[in-house]
């Protein structure tokens, strides 16, 4: 058994009993990265020197018996998506425009991990500015799927999912705007949660679409996920959209009891356009949950077919506004010209990649004079209907379940030429961002040797029910024990 | 073989658009364009982006397709629906206007591409 096959809670125990040291864990992480990351491409940058130094200090504390039991992440290695800013550790969003960006403060989630004494191993590859579903839009290098190196890991948190699947780190943080945690988690066979909008602070997350973005954990098991979530959830006065709602004890929800819980399965999520292999695995999972005593019923989310169009108008509009700050004046790689206006234009045109420019153009168009009502306002109205669909269902159901993605991981280049086909990958994950509800992807088996993700969706701030069902399913099956051979 | 090459070329979006344009011109049919090249140039200026002619043409085609796709939203009657302003029922948060610690000017300037006397330096704004 490898060190990172242990649950986080068990690693914490092993540290406590001094059966392993923090240095062991951190060195194991870097050793694995050295062995496999040339193939996987998950890390853009390592924090090796500082991490090993921190490990030494933590080991000293361990020896002196100064480990605080409340610091349940004490000494545990973590990888951080490169759109979450880390003081003193370069943060680029996988964009050439931010190639030299050295943050002067930490994101709230990074502060929280540091307070719990986790050790940052490095920064993880992603689609540029989190725009993409295959990680092919990184301006640095490709991330490869550990299950099949000829296939994409999903995106935009492709590095965050692949690194956990490849056993380089036991957990990572990603961000999810339209499926960017759940879709790569499904493609790489790991557990990924997009929390309720407002549950985790976005302070220090480089904004893509502010009304949709959420940070969440990627892990090998549901228990590990809840274990990390306990630390990063909670109100933050530095994020005005952060919700002041008490954080429950997530681990307490993992009692395996789903008897009598009502599960709705939207017919739209198992219909046209979903691969047979994916459907089969999801249906098997639903049968398993019935065996465990849950009540499974067919339901409908009638406006879900409009989610994709709604999302691309809204997310691109917000992106065009958010990314206007990248002008080469206060930070970033400036392409200086004789005049200011041309400096802006050269900096942005040379610094941004094609997908980012495409979305800025779409968003600028949708917000431009004469088109605002027809596109942006219309989309916000449809968003209300999509959100109401969920609210209606949650009057009668505890959770909603379907597949995370229409297919398993696809090959490189397969969808690159056609933006609409690429965007359709997110059709099952986008509605939850539009509605702000929490959703998790858990492994539910392999189809043709590739992982399939089961998506479990809950009410606003009811991550507990999501975790409860996910954990009960996981423990009743062996899917989470499958590992890619590297 | 030749047919294969032609097909491959046809697959390329710009070529496809050209062929369609020529076809419609020959047929003397008005092409209903949602996005014209001039609109793309205007939007690019608003977004502070530069593109060459080929890129402008590509964007006109791609944006047209995406906008065409988005027009399916017109199928839904929404005149009595409130647009979403926030997914949760939240209120504005107010606080006292108190002086607090903030970034030092040194930190704030740390990533500046160009600076002078503690200020960001930019190229000339006017001629």
From TrEMBL, chain A:
Keywords: ATP-binding, Ligase, Nucleotide-binding, Protein biosynthesis, Transferase. One of its GO terms (biological process) is translation. GO terms for molecular function: ATP binding; glutaminyl-tRNA synthase (glutamine-hydrolyzing) activity; transferase activity. It comes from the Bacteria. InterPro entries: Amidase (IPR000120), Amidase_CS (IPR020556), Amidase_dom (IPR023631), AS_sf (IPR036928), GatA (IPR004412). It catalyses: L-glutamyl-tRNA(Gln) + L-glutamine + ATP + H2O = L-glutaminyl-tRNA(Gln) + L-glutamate + ADP + phosphate + H(+). The active site is at residues 81, 156, 180. Gene3D superfamilies: Amidase signature (AS) domain. Residues 25-466 form the Amidase domain. Its EC number is 6.3.5.7. GO terms for cellular component: glutamyl-tRNA(Gln) amidotransferase complex. Belongs to the amidase family. GatA subfamily. Heterotrimer of A, B and C subunits. Allows the formation of correctly charged Gln-tRNA(Gln) through the transamidation of misacylated Glu-tRNA(Gln) in organisms which lack glutaminyl-tRNA synthetase. The reaction takes place in the presence of glutamine and ATP through an activated gamma-phospho-Glu-tRNA(Gln). PANTHER family: GLUTAMYL-TRNA(GLN) AMIDOTRANSFERASE SUBUNIT A (PTHR11895:SF151), TRANSAMIDASE (PTHR11895). This is Glutamyl-tRNA(Gln) amidotransferase subunit A. The lineage of its organism: Bacteria, Bacillati, Bacillota, Bacilli, Bacillales.
């Amino acid at each position: 058994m490898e060190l990172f096959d242990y649950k986080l809670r068990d690693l914490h125990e092993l540290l406590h009993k001094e059966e392993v040291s923090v240095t062991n864990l951190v060195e194991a992480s870097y050793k694995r990265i050295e062995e496999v990351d040339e193939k996987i491409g998950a890390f853009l940058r390592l924090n090796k020197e500082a991490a090993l130094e921190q490990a030494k200090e933590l080991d000293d504390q361990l020896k002196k018996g100064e480990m605080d039991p409340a610091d349940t992440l004490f000494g545990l290695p973590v990888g951080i998506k490169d759109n979450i800013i880390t003081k003193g550790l370069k943060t680029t969003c996988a964009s050439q425009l931010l190639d030299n960006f050295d943050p002067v403060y930490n994101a709230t989630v990074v502060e929280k991990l540091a307070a719990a004494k986790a050790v940052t191993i490095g920064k993880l590859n992603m689609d540029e500015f989190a725009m993409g579903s295959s990680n092919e839009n990184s301006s640095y290098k490709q991330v490869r799927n550990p299950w099949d190196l000829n296939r994409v890991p999903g995106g935009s948190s492709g590095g965050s999912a692949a690194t956990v699947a490849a056993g380089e780190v036991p957990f990572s943080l990603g961000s999810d705007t339209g499926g960017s945690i759940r879709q790569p988690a499904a493609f790489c066979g790991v557990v990924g949660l997009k929390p309720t909008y407002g549950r985790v602070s976005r302070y220090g997350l480089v904004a893509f679409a502010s009304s949709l973005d959420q940070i969440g954990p990627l892990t090998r098991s549901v228990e590990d996920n809840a274990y990390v979530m306990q630390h990063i959830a909670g109100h933050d006065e530095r994020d005005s959209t952060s919700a002041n709602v008490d954080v429950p004890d997530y681990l307490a929800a993992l009692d395996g009891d789903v008897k009598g819980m009502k599960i709705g399965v939207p017919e739209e999520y198992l219909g046209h356009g979903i691969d047979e292999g994916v459907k089969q695995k999801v249906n098997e999972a639903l049968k398993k949950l019935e065996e465990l005593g849950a009540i499974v019923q067919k339901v409908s989310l009638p406006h879900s077919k409009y989610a994709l169009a709604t999302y691309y108008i809204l997310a691109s509009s917000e992106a065009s506004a958010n990314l206007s700050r990248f002008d080469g004046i206060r930070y970033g790689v400036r392409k200086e010209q004789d005049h200011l206006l041309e400096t802006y234009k050269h900096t942005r045109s040379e610094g941004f990649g094609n997908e980012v420019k495409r979305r800025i153009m779409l968003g600028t168009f949708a917000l431009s004079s004469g088109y605002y009502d027809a596109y942006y306002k219309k989309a916000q109205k449809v968003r209300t209907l999509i959100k109401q669909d969920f609210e209606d269902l949650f009057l009668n159901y505890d959770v909603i379940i379907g597949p995370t993605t229409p297919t398993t991981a696809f090959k490189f280049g397969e969808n690159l030429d056609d933006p609409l086909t690429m965007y359709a990958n997110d059709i099952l994950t986008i509605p939850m961002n539009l509605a702000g509800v929490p959703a998790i992807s858990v492994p539910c088996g392999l189809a043709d040797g590739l992982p399939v993700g089961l998506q479990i969706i809950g009410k606003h701030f009811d991550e507990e029910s999501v975790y409860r069902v996910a954990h009960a399913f996981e423990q009743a099956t062996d899917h989470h024990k499958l590992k890619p051979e590297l | 073989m030749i047919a294969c090459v032609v097909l491959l070329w046809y697959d390329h979006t710009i070529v496809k658009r050209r062929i369609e344009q020529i076809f419609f011109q020959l047929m003397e049919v008005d092409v209903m364009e949602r996005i014209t090249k001039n609109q793309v140039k205007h939007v690019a200026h608003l977004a502070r982006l530069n593109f060459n002619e080929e890129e402008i043409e590509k964007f006109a085609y791609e944006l047209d397709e995406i906008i065409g796709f988005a027009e399916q939203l017109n199928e839904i009657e929404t005149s009595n629906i409130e647009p979403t302003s926030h997914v949760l029922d939240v209120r504005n948060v107010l606080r006292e206007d108190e002086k607090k610690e903030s970034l030092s000017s040194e930190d704030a300037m740390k990533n500046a591409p160009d600076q002078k006397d503690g200020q960001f330096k930019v190229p000339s704004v006017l001629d």
